[in-house]
Amino acid sequence: MRILIVFESLFGATHAIADEIGTGAGPYGEVTVVAAHDIDPATLPAVDLLVLGAPTHNHGLSTAESRGQAALLAIDTFSGLQLDRGENDSSGMREWLHSAAIPSGTQVAVFDTRIRGPRLFVGSAGHDIAQTLHRFQICLVAKPVSFSVMGNHRLEPGERSRAAHWGTELTTLIRPERA
Ligand SMILES: Cc1cc2nc3c(=O)[nH]c(=O)nc-3n(C[C@H](O)[C@H](O)[C@H](O)COP(=O)(O)O)c2cc1C
Q: Are 53 and 124 in contact (CB under 8 A)?
């Protein structure tokens, strides 16, 4: 089973979750974890499961403006935050998705990181990804899952292990004829 996990991450939380999902799925397939800016969306390889994840910004997927705000936070040494991407990596999951050529029949799962709370109040990047995929007539193998960060943008305790469990669970949701 080939599993490709593509993530966007400004401060490293979504990156860490992507790695943990890969760790959980690792024993059951060949896993690749890659940042969205490091994989050409137009030439995606055929995989059995594609997992997409991004941080929630302003209730949805990041924009050039929100990524700029994140970069400013990282410049502030008192924030303790560092950018998880190069200075020149200007695009994010939103732009990546719009040029993504996802091979038909690919099974897809989606996650995000966000502040704990009702989606109505805090939003969800995963929900935005799911809506975009729906427009491309791509179905998800599971409902989007959110992993919680604290006010300091770092993951809540326990979220890493929850992500590893979800990674394992995802491998059981793949249709058997493609596994
Ligand atoms: C500009 C900006 C806007 C944000 N807006 C939201 C939001 O609307 N809802 C939310 O739950 N979290 C919001 N957050 C917190 C992010 O979800 C958090 O920084 C992210 O999950 C950390 O993941 P990362 O380290 O992979 O970037 C925002 C963060 C930034 C920098």
A: no
Q: Please state the separation of Cα 19 from the chain's center in Å.
A: 10
Mutate to test the pocket of ligand 1, among 153, 154, 155 (most ligand atoms within 8 A of CB): 153
The rounded distance, in Å, linking the Cα atoms of 44 and 39 is 8
Question: Looking at ligand 1, which residue's alpha carbon is closest to its atom 29?
Answer: 57
Q: Which domains does the chain have, with CATH numbers?
A: 2-178 (3.40.50.360)
Q: What distance in angstroms lies between residue 79's CA and the mean position of ligand 1's atoms? A: 14
Q: What is the pLDDT along the chain (179 residues), one digit of tens a residue?
A: 999 999 999 999 999 999 999 999 999 999 999 999 999 999 999 999 999 999 999 999 999 999 999 999 999 888 899 999 776 677 899 999 999 999 888 999 999 999 999 999 999 999 999 999 998 889 899 999 999 999 999 999 999 999 999 999 999 998 655 44
- Specify the pTM: 0.96
- 57 ligand 1 Cβ < 6 A: yes
Atom in ligand 1 nearest the alpha carbon of residue 67: 1
Q: H/E element holding 131?
A: helix 125-135
